[in-house]
Amino acid sequence: MGTHGYAAPEYILTGHLTSKSDVYSFGVVLLELLSGRRSVDRRRRGREQHLVDWARPHLRHPERLHRVMDPSLDGQYSARAAREAATVAYRCLHSVPKSRPTMRAAVDALEPLLAVCGDVPAGPFVYTVPPEPDGSDEAAATATAAVARKKCLASAAHAKGELRTTGSRHVSSVAGQRSSSSPEQITDRGA
């Protein structure tokens, strides 16, 4: 009955899905993007295990939004875009389904954020990929996803910097390629 952590409260109670249930789930995904956390994380304590319960009080207050933002972004994102995305997430996560926006309204509110880049702090960012002892591709996929999230929030046009690696593999955010060569710096040209 619904994916734990994403299901709207009314769906859990009634078992009835509506378009507003989907909007709630979208709000959870948006919150995951902002925070870098999973919707449910049993390794955290108390209220922090459930992302929505933990983050919702902070979403209403711009001065507290930094507590929700993914710390791995290291402040390299547009504060305005983060505030506006947090507002959309907050509205999508409303406990009363009729008070949630339509998906069209949520998308319309987020689309202008793609162009927001003027208040993105300039400067390099560094993401470290540890060596993979078991030879799996998981670290490469994780690094690529992290870089993509940074670029989305920071706007590709202004998120120029470097990617550095340790160990024997590296991930290029430009080409999304993996290499077994020795560690080297890869310059991200904001592609």
Automatic annotation (TrEMBL):
Concerning Pfam families, the annotation shows:
Pkinase
Its domain of life? Eukaryota
Identification of the protein by name? Protein kinase domain-containing protein
* Species classification: Eukaryota, Viridiplantae, Streptophyta, Embryophyta, Tracheophyta
What ranges does the record give for the region Disordered, renumbered to this chain? 158-191
Q: Where is the composition biased (Low complexity)?
A: 172-182
| PROSITE patterns named among the record's database cross-references | PROTEIN_KINASE_DOM
Which Gene Ontology molecular-function terms are recorded?
ATP binding; protein kinase activity
**Gene3D superfamilies linked to this entry:** Transferase(Phosphotransferase) domain 1
Which InterPro entries does the protein's record reference?
A: Kinase-like_dom_sf, Plant_Ser_Thr_Prot_Kinase, Prot_kinase_dom
The record places domain Protein kinase at 1-114
